Amino acid sequence: MKKRVPLGVIAIIYESRPNVTVDAFGLCFKTGNSVILRGGKDAINTNMAIMKAIKETLKALNMPVDCVYLLEDTSRETTVELMKLNQYVDVLIPRGGARFN
After folding, report:
1. Residue 22 above 90 pLDDT?
2. How far apart are CA 11 and CA 51, in angstroms?
3. How far apart are CA 17 and CA 61, in angstroms?
4. In terms of CB atoms within 10 Å, which of 19, 20, 61, 65 comes out highest?
């Protein structure tokens, strides 16, 4: 069986579907990747609550809490800056429509 090699830092940009926050974190965590999440403005409070639960759980399990990060600024300008972080982000996954929130 081949050993899986993590991709590194994955950034995922998605619209207002909070279930993506949990799904994306779970997939990245299971595969040994760090993840930067940028959800839509309509679900930011829900995403922040989900992120709090994820980080509390990671901490309770003595796992690295910094393997997941939620961008709380949902502005287009911040999203554009995230897309320019080629030096730090190994994979960028835009999910959803062509127009970001």
Report:
1. yes
2. 15
3. 27
4. 20
